[in-house]
Design a protein that fits this description.
Elements: H1 2-25, H2 59-66, E1 69-76, H3 87-93, E2 101-109, E3 115-119, H4 120-123, E4 128-132, E5 138-140, E6 142-147, E7 152-156, E8 178-183, E9 191-202, E10 213-216, E11 228-230, E12 236-243, E13 254-258, H5 259-272, E14 278-279, E15 282-286, H6 289-294, E16 303-308, H7 313-317, E17 324-328, E18 331-332, H8 336-344, E19 352-358, E20 361-367, E21 370-371
Antiparallel strand pairs: 1-2, 1-4, 2-3, 3-7, 4-5, 6-7, 8-9, 8-11, 9-10, 10-13, 11-12, 12-13, 14-21, 15-16, 16-17, 17-18, 17-19, 19-20
Length: 382
């Protein structure tokens, strides 16, 4: 018995000594991190399966939409001053540069046929337009049509196998929805930023004639104009068009034209070569207490007409200065922005029902709208 006990003690001593040596020199053999001084025990997350995005990642939406977002480079020939050769002009102003002016923006491919949506101000006045795809291919673009009232333009390029973005439903967007803004800010290359829908239906900003912007805090900077605002599925919600900024850079307030508006402009320009909107020939104003007192009407909801174009559609229907438009069809009119949008949506040549109040007397008139004249500049006349 004594011999067995001695054998057991010696075996245990050897095994403990071996364990100590291995734990000190090769702890990985035992399946745990070293515990000696100068080392750090780390806990690593389990590896994500190859190709699968992490939880909460917007990678798939970005990948789905990015290929259809393009960079737009424009050039405009320098306008030579007629006095540039005059010695006195050169003395006071120096030699005027004849270098062409370069511009930068973004666009979105919306059709396999090569149609691209962008902002009108990106391509306005450009002599040459180059489109660069995310796969580095490039092509000269042709302007198919523009709509200054919404600041949209349609371009077309001739390339094969074009990536196309899927149009989303901007009418279903809600405040708080996550969105991505994709474009080419400052010419650094395609960039994706994220944020949320901050507000809907923004208007009266003085940017366009027809305003119904999606506001977002996703970073939008110069060069992003004409780029894509997409949802978490990578579907197009809007065309990024403007920012509010005191510095020229992003301050968390950006605006996008809803895809519902962009789709109407696209279809109208491609099908008819232009956008046809209703027009009645009036000068509208929001109903303020001062105007209500001037025209002797009681302040309430509606838009007051302060001017009527002679022989225009409104004048022919009997609308007068001082009338308050309360409804068009079954839709109430709350402000000038709503009036502009509702009249523009009317079909020219087809009579529409207007609810009017004149000197606090309710009237109903049928007005046959004409075709809205193409604007020479953004204005508020309707």
């Amino acid at each position: 018995m004594k011999r067995l006990w001695l054998l057991f003690s010696q075996t245990a001593t050897v095994l403990l000594a071996a364990y100590f040596v291995v734990a000190t020199l090769k702890p990985q053999w035992l399946g745990h991190a070293p515990s000696v001084a100068g080392t750090v025990a780390l806990i690593e997350a389990p590896a994500t399966p190859a190709g699968e995005p992490p939880v909460g990642s917007l990678r798939l939406a970005a990948q789905k939409a990015s290929s259809a977002v393009v960079s737009i480079n424009t050039s405009k020939a320098a306008r030579k001053n007629p006095n540039s050769e005059d010695p006195w002009f050169k003395f006071f102003f120096g030699d005027q540069s004849n270098e062409p002016q370069a511009g930068l923006g973004s666009g979105v491919i919306v059709s396999p046929n090569g149609y691209i949506l962008t902002n009108n101000h990106v391509v306005d006045g450009a002599d040459e337009i180059e489109v660069v795809l995310n796969d580095s291919r490039s092509a000269r673009a042709k302007v198919i049509g523009t709509d200054p009232d919404t600041d949209l333009a349609i371009l077309k390029i001739e390339l094969d196998k074009l990536p196309v973005i899927v149009l989303g439903n901007s009418d279903a967007a809600q405040v708080g929805d996550r969105v991505l803004a994709i474009g080419n800010p400052f010419g650094v290359g395609q960039t994706v930023t994220s944020g949320i829908v901050s507000a809907l239906g923004r208007n009266q900003l003085g940017i366009n004639t027809f305003e119904n912007f999606i506001q977002t805090d996703a970073a939008i900077n110069p060069g992003n104009s004409g780029g894509a605002l997409v949802d978490t599925n990578g579907h197009l919600l809007g065309i990024n068009t403007a920012i509010y900024s005191r510095s020229g850079g992003n301050m968390g307030i950006g605006f996008a034209i809803p895809v519902s508006t962009a789709k109407q402009v696209l279809e109208g320009i491609v099908k008819d070569g232009q956008i046809t909107r209703g027009w009645i020939g009036v000068e509208p104003n929001d109903l303020s207490p001062e105007l209500a007192e001037t025209f002797d009407v009681k302040p309430h909801q509606g838009v007051i007409i302060t001017g009527v174009l002679q022989n225009g559609p409104a004048a022919q229907a009997g609308i007068r200065p001082g009338d308050v438009i309360v409804k068009i069809g079954n839709q109430p009119v709350a402000d000038v922005t709503q009036l502009l949008s509702q009249v523009a949506a009317l079909k020219p040549g087809v009579a529409a029902h207007f609810a009017i109040e004149r000197k606090n007397q309710a009237l109903e008139l049928d007005v046959t709208p004409g075709v809205r004249p193409r604007p020479r500049a953004v204005n508020r006349q309707e």
